[in-house]
Fold this sequence. Notes:
The protein has helices at 2-10, 29-51, 55-69, 100-109, and strands spanning 13-14, 22-23. By secondary structure, the protein is mostly helical.
Amino acid sequence: MLENSSKARYRPLKDDDENDEPLTCDLDYMEITIVVLKVVLWCLVMALFIAFEFGAVFFIISVFYFMFTNFRETEKSPNELSAYSVFNPHCESIKGTLTAQQFENEIKFGLGGLH
């Protein structure tokens, strides 16, 4: 009986709308458990700091820690453009960037597609 339940538990999921391609999950149970334990630990330490009346300080330090630990871990590829056009060759901007000229035209004449 345990054999059948384990096979059913770990079989790949399938979506009816897709062309029978199996859906996979990148996270395993151990990673999810570690993340949940980290969140619980953070909540407990936050409650402790609130009791010591340093809750805001702990929250701000936590935000900075979260930001700095989630920066990109890999090097930028040589032909990848920066989000800031001044760092790109010939100040080339990425697609979807709002330019000063486009912003000025929208202020003067409104959004063309909405009238």
